[in-house]
Amino acid sequence: MSGGQTISPELRAWMVAQLAAGHSVSALKQSMRDAGWHDDVADAALSELGPLAPGVTTAPAPPREMPGPDLSAAPLEIDADGRKVTVLQTMKNPRVVVFGNLLSDDECEGLIAAARERLARSLTVETRTGGEVLNIDRTSDGMFFERGENAIVARLESRIASLLKWPIEFGEGLQILRYSPGAQYRPHYDYFDPGEPGTPTILRRGGQRVATLVMYLQSPEQGGATTFPDVGLEVAPVRGTGVFFSYDRPDPATKSLHGGAPVLSGEKWVATKWLREREFT
Ligand SMILES: O=C(O)CCC(=O)C(=O)O
Ligand SMILES: [Fe+2]
């Protein structure tokens, strides 16, 4: 692209006015994205504004530290707190790593057994009170464990911290989801949408989510892959394995859009660990 010709005088005036009115660069970018601009074009337009908007830097933020396994020596196996976790597949953009031998069968069964009672209870409560709006985007049943709530959860959390080199305290409690036939989780981002009014409140508990580890506790018979529609990737939901993905900013450009494809037969159970920027309180 040739420099300096991206924006019309009208657009320039609008951008300057938005910034002068106190709107953030990211809000401006979101408006441009909503209007159909591609991120790289919006970035180029914003960088042209530089001299007109003193104090506003549009230079890319320095690379931040991110959770993730150390793959610098291309290991086939990683010792994670005493367990030999295998590296089955990796992708750079989006950042995706598929792990094998992440959990034992006993651990998978233990988590399911502990979650099952609570799922039953929470479903009863919901039906009785009519509370909790039915979410058509996610038709699985779910519950959360507290961090360190039982021995299996605690062991798994220290394994994850070692594997992904991220403090236990920066992780949310483990979420368990059960998908019956027909259930799915439509493609979504796990980070909190900066444009949503509730997001600043959510971010007070540990900042943004920066990575997700989905662990398969029970394979369905058919269906139920974890899909990454931007890159056409489908990860098979095989018990004991897991898929890790990270996103260094709350932006679709991370290509971290993902979902749980409909389960066609059998039941799929997953445990999800979300990692935050800071200590999650
Ligand atoms: O069930 C899956 O494969 C995906 C789960 C997921 O996206 C989530 O828990 O955020
Ligand atoms: Fe997700």
From TrEMBL:
Its cofactor is L-ascorbate. Keywords: Dioxygenase, Iron, Metal-binding, Oxidoreductase, Vitamin C. Residues 170-277 form the Fe2OG dioxygenase domain. InterPro entries: Oxoglu/Fe-dep_dioxygenase_dom, P4HA-like, Pro_4_hyd_alph, Pro_4_hyd_alph_FE2OG_OXY. This is 2OG-Fe(II) oxygenase. The keyword Transmembrane helix does not apply.
